[in-house]
Amino acid sequence: MSDEKRIKKIRTQIKHHDELYYQKNKPEISDAEYDRLFSELKKLEKQYPQWITPDSPTQKVGGRLTAKFSPVTHKVPLLSLDSLFEWDDVLAFDQRIKKLIGDRAFEYSCEPKFDGLSVSLVYKDGHFVQAATRGDGSVGENVTENVFQIHTLPKKLKGDYPQELHLRAEVIMTLSGFSELNKKMVQMGEDSFANPRNAASGSLRQLDSKITKERPLDIFIHGLPFHMGPAFSSHWESLDYLDEMGLPTSPLRKKAGTLDQVQKYYEKLNAKRESLDYEIDGIVVKLDDLNLCRELGSKSRSPRYAMAYKFESRKEITLLDDIVVQVGRQGTLTPVALLKPVDVGGVTVSRASLHNLDIIQKLDVKIGDTVRVARAGDVIPEITEVLHEKRSGKEKAFKMPESCPVCHAPVCRESVFYYCTGGYSCLAQLKWSIIHFASKGAMDIDGLGRETVDLLVQKNMIKHSADLYVLTKDDFLNLEGFKEKKAQNLLDALESSKQKPLNRFLYALGMRHVGAENAKILADHYGSVAKLKTATSEELMDIHGIGPEIASSCVEFFSEKKNLALLDDFKKVGVNPIQEVTLKKGIFTGFTFVFTGELKNLSRDQAIEVTNQLGGKITGSVSQKTSYVVVGENPGSKYEKAIKLGVSILDEREFLKIIGKET
Ligand code: IVH
Fold first, then answer.
1. Phi/psi of residue 320, each to 5°?
2. How confident is the model over 219-256, as pLDDT tens digits?
3. Residue 62, pLDDT score
C-alpha cells in the first residue's frame, strides 16, 4: 500500500474508533493500538506534510459532542498531550525544550497520567458551579449535576480562595468499585463496561444524576488554567495552592531536576501501578516554570511544554485453545482466539479478537500456541506475540472457512477481509443488524435487548428490521419471559421510535461506513430518504465530511433491490422520517467554499460554522462549481487544484475580513 493510501486508511480508522470511543463508549481497540495508529499517522504526516488535511485527526483536539447535554465553551481550550512510548522520544522532547529555552535552568513536574475522563471545573466565590467534559477541546458537555455527585470533590473551598477558579481534572473510577459495578450490571442483565475509563465516562454522562451518585467515582485535579488569585511562577506552586483550598491533587506528584530523575519516577510509578486502586497509563511530564511554558506555547493539538510518557501495556502468557469465527452485522468474519483464562492486571481474559487473516499471518499464530496477551490499561485484549520457541509441533494452522459458520452461504474475500454472502438470510447478520437498529444511538428501542432479538430471529418471526413494526402483542406474549406489561412496553417503545429523526433512521439502517456523525450530515443535507436515494456519488462527495468510501457505500445501498424493498416496507409501517433542510441566508448565500491548510485564528470547525451561519455551503473538493478556496498554512493539493481551475483564492486574513473578524 502506498504511503498516501496508508495515511487515508489510518485517518478513516481513527475517525471510526473516535466515534466508537466518544459517542458510544464502546471502543473496539485498545488504547495502545489507538495510540500506535495515531503515532504512525503523525510520523507519516511529518514525512509528507503536503498530505496533511485540516480534517486529519492530528489537527483536532478531541472527540465530538453528543446532543444529550448542553454545550459549555471552555474559558481556556483543553489541549491534549503528545504520547511518547520510547525513552529516545523522551530524550528528543527534552532536547527540543533545551533548544527553545537556551541555557536557562528548569525543572519538570512529574505526575501520574490518570486513565479517566477529562473535565474542566469552575468555582465561583468558593462554590463549585460548573463541570464540563472536554468535548472537542473548545466546547464540552455540561455535566455539573453529575460531577456534583463525586463526594471527594469539595463543593465549597477552604481558606483564601479566589473569586473565580477554572480547573482541569480527571474523573476516574476505582478498580474495586469497577468490578463491583460490573458484577451488578451482569446480574441486572445489562452489558458490563469494558474498562474503568468507559465506566467513568458512562457514569458521568447519565441523564439521571442519582445513577451517577451510586457510581464509585473519584477525581484528581491536575491543572489551573485560569484563576483570579495570586500569580504563580510554577505549576508545582499552583497545585500546592489547590491543595490548600482542599482540592484533591495527586499525592504521587514529584519534581525532577534531571532526565535521570524523570526515568526513576517513571519506573517507580510503573511498579506502584499494580497497588493503586485506579488505572494510570503513564506519567505526565510538564515543564514547571509557567513563564517558560507560555514562551514555548502550543501546537494545534498539544502543548510543547508537556507530554505523556506511556507505560507498556500489561501482558501475560497463556494458551490459545482454539480459533472460532464470528459473523458481524455486515457479514464480516472475524477470527477470535479462545484463550485459557488468564488474569491480566486484575481482569480475566479468555477471548481476544484476531481481527483478520492478515494479522494471523503476521503474528504467525496457530491453534495450540503459547501467546502473550496484553491489556493496555483497558480491557479489549490483544495477542501481541506468539512464543514460537514453545511450539511442540502439534499446533494447527487456522483456515478461514469457505462457507459461513452460521448460515453456510459461500464466503467471499475482499483484501484481508472475508464476508458471508448470506445477507439477512444469515441469522448472525440479521441478529446484529436488528440489535444495531434498536440500539441507543440508532432507533433507541427500549426493551429490545439481545435476548429478545435472539428469540425473534431464532423463531423466524422477523426477516428484517421493518418486520419489528408488524409484530403484535400476542407475538411478544408467545416469547419466553414476556408478560402483559413487558409486551406492552415494547410495543409502545416501537411505536414511539417511529418518530425518531432522520439521522437516527439512516444510522439505524446500518449502511457500511455510515456512522452516527455521517448519518447526521446526510440527513441535514437531504432531509429525506427519497432525496438521498437519488444522490450520485459525485454529489455526495461534494458534501463536507463525506468521503469516497461513504459516498460509494450509500450509492451501493440504494442500488440494491432488497434495500429498496426494505425502505418500502418501512414506509408501509409508518417509518419514514423527513426533516426540513434549511439553509441560512447571509452574505455567503449561493457561494460554495473549500478550506485547505491550517488556519491560525480559527479552528476548522469554527470556520465551517461561520460559513454556514452566513449561508455558505462547504464542500470537500475543489471543482468548477467552487466559489472560493480558503487557504491556510501548509495547504494540500486542493490549493493546486484551485489554481489550475482558476477558482478564487482567499487567504486567512481576507476570509477573516469578509466575516468581520479581522485581526
Ligand atoms: S495535563 C495541556 N496532567 O490526559 C495539557 N493531563 O492527552 C493538559 N490526563 O485529556 C493535560 N492525567 O485529561 C494532564 N496528570 C495529568 C493527566 C492528564 C491524565 C489526561 C488529560 C488529557 C489527556 C492528555
1. -95, 105
2. 999 999 998 888 899 999 999 999 999 999 999 999 99
3. 43
- Is the shortest distance between the CB of 84 and ligand 1 below 6 Å? no
Mutate to test the pocket of ligand 1, among 60, 93, 109, 114 (most ligand atoms within 8 A of CB): 114
Q: Yes or no: say if 58 and 43 are a contact pair by the CB < 8 Å rule.
A: no
Q: What is the DSSP letter of 443?
A: T
pTM for the full predicted model = 0.54
* Exposed e or buried b per residue across 547-563, where buried means at least 16 C-beta atoms within 10 angstroms of its C-beta: bebbbebbbebbeeeeb
Residue 119's pLDDT band (cuts 50, 70, 90): very high
The grid coordinates listed for 268 are 517507580
The pLDDT of residue 415: 78
Q: How close are the terminal C-alpha atoms of the chain, in Å?
A: 43
Q: What class is the 422-497 domain?
A: mainly alpha
Domains 3-59 and 71-310 share a fold: no
Query: Does ligand 1 come within 6 angstroms of the Cβ of 284?
Result: yes
Looking at residue 419, what is its pLDDT? 94
C-alpha to C-alpha distances, 537 to 4, 206, 396, 532, 566, nearest whole angstrom: 22, 39, 45, 11, 22
Whether ligand 1 lies within 6 angstroms of the CB of 200 is answered as: no
For domain 502-572, which CATH number applies: 1.10.1060.10, 1.10.150.20, 3.90.25.10, 3.40.50.12780? Answer: 1.10.150.20
Q: Return the pLDDT at 99.
A: 93
Residue 225 Cβ < 6 Å to ligand 1 = no
- The answer, yes or no, to whether residue 137 has pLDDT greater than 80, is yes
Q: Which residues of 269-286 are buried (b: 16+ CB within 10 A; e: fewer)?
A: beeebeeeebbbbbbbbb
Name which residue sits closest to atom 13 of ligand 1, judged by CA: 118
